Amino acid sequence: MSSTKELIEDKYNLDQADVIAYGSKSNNQETKFEFIPFKLRKLAPDEITLKTLYTSLSPYDIAFSTSKLGDNQILTHVPGHVFVGEIVELGSEVVNLKKHDIVCCGILEKSCGNCTYCLEGSQNLCESIDDMIKWKQGYGGWATHWQGNLKYAHKISQEIPLELASSLMDAGLTVYAPMKKHIIANKHKELAVIGIGRLGHLAIKYGKAMGLNVTAITMSQQNTEDIINLGADAVYNFENLNELTKLRKIDVVLYCSGDGNIDSFIRILKKRGIFVLLSAPVLGEDKSKIDEHFITHNEISIVGSHFGNDDDMRQCVDFSARHRVFPNVELYDFDDFDKALEKLNSWKAKYTIVVKCLSHKYPRFNN
Ligand SMILES: [Zn+2]
């Protein structure tokens, strides 16, 4: 398989290229993003070529591109780990998909299939996960086309608007999987969501669709009415948790923010409550100091969650279609990728940023 670096070398001009991507030719803190033309490669028997329709932007795309994930960094030249597309070419061994199928792709391209975690169905914890992420195998979905293995692609039901589908495999899955595991499985009813942004707004919507009582805790001066409109039953500001701390009625907290000292949020939980970490602070900026006595005396569980496995993905997409739970998105044109990226980098996006991959500036790549 061609490496990303080989693909994006300055050897193709626009007239010769098959694909135009939005990416960088180097990977470092000063990464400069631009439109890069390159050619499609010959497919391996188990691969497909996809015409990308919509692609999501996530802070992790940038973290992976600019070496900001510490020692475990995975560098990419063309980010984009969740996207929706139409299949335009199939390798000879692909039997479960056909030409013109519309599919949604999550972060995993495939998994090793042999490690302890893959064998129990937890592909999201695969021992070789760093090698299984989309851009590690080639390049990501910030492009007009994508090629690779689609073992973990899911066909999109007609009830899901395509521009909303890609975020379901990213933010949607990240909140849905732990809700299924910790809330539904335990028949809990009281959920608190901390941080009402890309992840948190979907957690509120899923919570209401699951019949839960949802308390939202905002980390900013966000408009309370906006959060109520998402479905939250009550809204608190993180600086004013006294009442909630006195009530101690929450069964499960979904922590969707990398900010703040989690110790104050743990105190809103009932005894045996579960605190689920879905987000973490930037390396070196952890402000948390946990009261171990409170944790032990109240039998509190603090758990992490790392997107979800293949079953979770399928169930998340089905649940979203059935209950019409979709993300709120800000939609940008492909030609305006600079603006979309600027919005992401400035942390000014209210919820989710999605780019429509049809280009007006480069129409020859739309086929
Ligand atoms: Zn594995």
SSE layout:
Blueprint lengths: L3 H5 L10 E5 L10 E5 L8 E11 L1 H7 L17 E8 L11 E4 L10 H4 L14 H4 L7 E5 L3 E3 L6 H23 L5 E5 L5 H10 L3 E6 L5 H7 L3 E4 L4 H6 L2 E6 L6 H5 L2 E9 L14 H6 L3 E4 L5 H14 L5 E5 L3 H9 L6 E5 L11
Helix pairs in contact: 5-6, 5-11
The structure holds zinc ion.
Zinc ion (ZN) binds next to helix 3.
Structurally, the number of domains stands at: 2
What is the subunit arrangement here? single chain
CATH architecture of the largest domain: Alpha-Beta Complex
Class per helix and strand makeup: alpha/beta
CATH class of the largest domain: Alpha Beta
Q: How does the major sheet shape up? A: 7 strands, mixed
Annotation field: number of helices: 12
End-to-end gap: 23 Å
- pLDDT < 50 runs, ≥5 residues: 69-74
Radius of gyration: 21 Å
